[in-house]
Please model this.
Amino acid sequence: MNYPVNVFIGKIKDYEGSRPSAIAKLQVDGELSLTEKGLVGDEQAEKKIHGGPDRALCHYPREHYAFWASEYPDQAGLFVAPAYGENLSTEGLTEKNVFIGDIFRWGEALIQVTQPRSPCFKLNFHFGISDIATQMQNAGKTGWLYRVILAGKVETDAPLTLVSRLSDVSVYDACAIAWHMPFDDEQYHRLLSAAGLSTSWTRTMQKRRLSNKIEDNSRRLWGK
Model:
């Protein structure tokens, strides 16, 4: 099945009270170059936690915006793509029907799902809602990230087409295993077995199995 896609890129900007970010993106049209680092012209402010080979593209389901607008009716105008800083926006693909390791064709390129997006505190400043990163994580409405396994030219009017499914772990399952369940070694092993899982998530799950504890996510979610 083909999924029409809207495409967005952003430049790094300063945010009062927070660190610089490229979350504010603008829609682009026409032919673009996609490399292993992402779309040419798209920037990331802190490459230790954003971007890189396993996080070259961010995808957010457009249908989630209706949920967020209903949660915050007084700020409903904020909740339109690409408010969450996504590169790709579609309807019909969500965390429940996209799986870790899925490979999509997009123009000349092939991209692979590597992990859910891990919401961070910059979203709180971006929306002016103190805990929206935590809400996003708790709701499992995180979107997901891709690696580029075949670079090339992409067109903004070229759809995403699923060409391979390599695991039975949905993005929603991965969110649940990582953030919603108490310590569960069997589920961590299941997630680690998902072909295509990012290096950072592989490291985190393996650390949990070795330490028998879940790491503190407060700094990521709150900036503290």
